[in-house]
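Narrative summary of target 7.
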Amino acid sequence: MSKQSIRHVYGACLTELGRKYPQLMVLDADLKESTQSIQFERVFPDRYIECGIAEQNMLCVAAGLALVGKIPVVHSFAAFIAMRACEQVRTSIAYPGLNVKIVGTHAGVTAGSAGTTHHALEDIAIMRAMAGMTVFVPGDARELEQVIAAAFVINGPVYIRLGAIDYEDVYRDSDQFISGRATLLRPGNDVTIMTTGHLMHAGVVAADILKDQHGISARVLQMASIKPLDHAAIVAAVRETAGIVTVEDHNILGGLGGAVCEAACAAGGARVERIGVKDGFCGVGSCAFLLQQQKVTVDSIVLAVLDICCQKRG
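Modeled conformation, tokenized:
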């Protein structure tokens, strides 16, 4: 598998969409090189607005543009979008259901050495709790391209979560992102691994290890569509496998794990092991170091699956 900078792929996709949608406008909060909205600015400078370090104001500007028929796409670090400008996202965009696309980069602990203030471990929970907000978390470059295209078909607010690291290519030619649907990456009937974002790669690697070394058939579902969520896929996992392991670069409370637990409970209940940040803050270090420290790893996925399977076998 190869790696690609998800932000650079995003910048190229955004620029292509600018050619397709003449009403598309891009806003950034003094982070255009970090978010790669700079690629759009170079091609369409008259449709780019630099809002400066004023995320709350940027969201209000986007709301105004949407009200006059534009399609604004706003950019900043996920921590700033979801928390510093949370009220503006909710009241100025989600509440009136405006057609604004919100892109949060450097999500999870991918900001690494920037430290706790720049980590976004709460943004999925915040955004999916807002009425009318769609939440997408792509896991590689190909899935991102499909997510961006799907976001622009939706006439309403969409939050797209990206990291600041290179993402492993996982999607095959046959894989297709559909809003509200999980993507089946590996079939299996023993246990289900559900991933989101860049940890999609860890999920498929763990499934391959489980099959090769332990003879365990692990179903892997990439849940890039957090909201709407694929309830049917979760119900099937509850009924057809021994348990579910969720994997995310986010607090285990309120993110993918929380959403899956809600759906699994409604389906009659199942064992769900949540792998993610254990309701705490992370320190300073590379993304890989911090995920290792939090035990968000391939080994942790394998161990969680083995534990579920051992319990089933008594």
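Residues 181 and 230 are 5 Å apart (CA to CA).
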